[in-house]
Design goal:
The protein is built from 3 helices and 22 strands. It is an alpha+beta fold.
């Protein structure tokens, strides 16, 4: 009976984690770049009641008897399927089509680089005089280029394209599918910032196992041994290149209908385990009453 209590309790604990995961998915249904999470389980140890042996008549009995001792959470895996593109009026809103990630610098060391699918960026002033602009996320973290440096635009680079410009105007900057930044010249023709041979480019990075990334909060991920090192799309010909869509954001890939069905299933499983505990308790009470 005690074994039943512990087994059913492990099921209730596991389903509570499952409900927590589903609730987090539903809470982030409108979070840009959020990837739905799936709770995965595995069985606990098995107790052997009877091993393979022979019967009293000497006949072979190849099948033993083992009883499971419950369940435990194995992992909570993020599903990196493509989210839908949502149109945005922000000219520095970028959605990624493909497996790539943006990179942002959250500290001063390479270990402080984080990766995200949330492309809701802004151009912030790089200096007090307004001679530079830097592309950052909503928390002010610089977005990295394909060279691994913070993306900073100098007024001098803009004036090489259009000498009439006396200040940086971020709303006139265009980004193509490759993430290369362009600015209109005097004839309103787009020219690459930094030159056609070495244009300033938003960095895109991929991972061998994106599900192994560590969730750092704020839609950011950090590298782990399970995910593998970041693969720079700009200098690796063995990966399928992602594309950037300016004026769009990647919405969450959470499917509300699926999550509601999963919530009902988890709730029922939690209820069944609680019923098992009640049944075991009732049987123990009846066993105790036999001596009366």
């Amino acid at each position: 009976m005690v074994r039943t209590l512990w087994t059913a309790a492990s099921g209730m604990i596991g389903q509570q984690t499952n409900v927590d995961t589903i609730a987090n998915n539903l809470a982030n249904v409108n979070t840009v770049g959020y990837k739905t999470e799936v709770n995965e389980f595995k069985s606990l140890l098995y107790q052997t009641l009877q091993s393979k042996t022979t019967t009293a008549n000497g006949e072979n009995k190849p099948i033993g008897a083992q009883v499971g001792l419950g369940v435990r959470n194995a992992s909570i895996t993020s599903q990196f399927t493509q989210g839908s593109f949502l149109e945005s009026e922000n000219p520095t809103a970028f959605a990624i089509g493909g497996d790539g990630f943006f990179a942002v610098q959250t500290g001063t060391t390479p270990a402080d680089i984080r990766y995200t699918r949330n492309g809701n960026f802004i151009f912030a002033l790089g200096d007090i005089q307004g001679n530079t602009l830097k592309l950052t996320d909503s928390d002010g973290h610089p977005v990295l280029t394909s060279a691994g440096n913070p993306l900073v635009i100098n007024l001098g680079d803009i004036q090489k394209i259009n000498p009439d410009v006396n200040k940086l105007m971020g709303d006139r900057i265009t980004v193509d599918e490759m993430g290369q930044l362009m600015y209109p010249d005097q004839q309103n023709n787009l020219q690459y910032i930094g030159g056609a041979d070495n244009p300033l480019t938003i960095g895109l990075y991929q991972f061998q196992n994106p599900s192994g990334l560590n969730k750092a909060g704020d839609s950011l991920y950090s590298v782990t041994a399970a995910s593998g090192a970041a693969i720079n799309e700009a200098n690796n010909a063995n990966v399928e290149k992602s594309v950037i869509r300016q004026g769009y954001l990647e919405g969450s890939n959470v499917q509300v209908a699926d999550e509601m069905v999963n919530l009902i299933i988890a709730q029922r499983a939690y209820e069944f385990n609680s019923k098992a505990i009640q049944a075991a308790d009732t049987m123990m009470q009846e066993a105790n009453e036999l001596r009366r």
